[in-house]
Write a structure and sequence with these properties.
alpha/beta, Rossmann fold, seven-stranded parallel beta sheet
Length: 255
């Protein structure tokens, strides 16, 4: 297989939540492989900073304010991508959230909000890129699950439930859209240093160290370490790969 199999030059990639953390790490990897990037996120200040960095890699990068649970916002996200690039080749469903507390302490509003962003948002964005991908002859959808897609967690119950749903959604969309040459796969990040996980190190130091000690690599991961797998799943190198979920966790789930 030649290195051109991983070349994304001229491709258009939407990365939801692509202005920080894992999303930006993936956007950076896709840009380094040549893809033009649409950062679909809510925080404009973070988006502006991300766009400056991505443009520095020699690609076109635009920001589209997007709340992934809002049908109008998602439709606008796809429309803006088509207006700018005339195509949607890659969608990375990265936008997500979590609320940490014992399960008995969640309100229904909190529980539903996590499910809405992490699972419903993934479906909504995937649904809306289907037609342009189908008309173009194919595409790549990469859903961001979690190691909690594989096992449970005592303090992020709705997050775990949503990410388990993301894995099943990935399989179902892969089956439904294989005939349209759309490959749908998932990345399952392990314990990664992001804004979302930062409070664990500062507020739950003992838990942070317990987690670190279980990771065979002996450390937490960094957002940039998601990029290589994302490039593979976004490229022609993975044209016969669909419906799978790949852990990137330093061996945590294998321990």
């Amino acid at each position: 297989m030649s290195t051109t199999s991983f070349d994304l030059s001229g491709k258009a990639a939407i990365v939801t939540g692509g202005n920080g953390g894992i999303g930006l790490g993936i956007a950076r990897g896709l840009a380094q492989a040549g893809a033009n990037i649409v950062v679909a996120a809510r925080n404009q200040q973070k988006t502006d900073s991300a766009l400056e960095e991505l443009r520095g890699l020699g690609v076109i990068a635009i920001g589209v304010p997007t709340e992934v649970t809002d049908e109008g916002d998602v439709a606008n996200m796809v429309r803006a991508t088509m207006d700018e690039f005339g195509r949607v080749d890659i969608l990375v469903n990265n936008a997500g959230m979590s609320i940490r507390k014992p399960p008995q302490d969640y309100t229904m509003e909190e529980f539903e909000r996590v499910i809405d962003v992490n699972l419903n948002g993934t479906f909504l964005c995937s649904r809306d890129v289907y037609e342009p991908m189908k008309e173009a002859g194919g595409g790549k959808i990469i859903n961001i699950g979690s190691m909690t897609s594989v096992f449970g967690s005592d303090w992020v119950v709705p997050y775990s439930a949503s990410k388990g749903g993301v894995v099943q959604l990935t399989k179902s969309l892969a089956i439904a859209w294989a005939k349209d040459n759309i490959q749908v796969n998932a990345i399952l990040p392990g314990w990664i240093h992001t804004d979302l996980t930062a409070p664990i190190k500062t507020d739950y130091a003992e838990r942070y160290e317990t987690i670190r000690s279980r990771i065979p690599h002996g450390r937490w991961g960094e957002p940039e370490e998601m990029g290589g797998c994302a490039v593979f799943l976004a490229s022609t190198a993975s044209d016969y790969v669909t419906g799978v979920s790949i852990p990137i966790d330093g061996g945590y789930v294998a321990f």
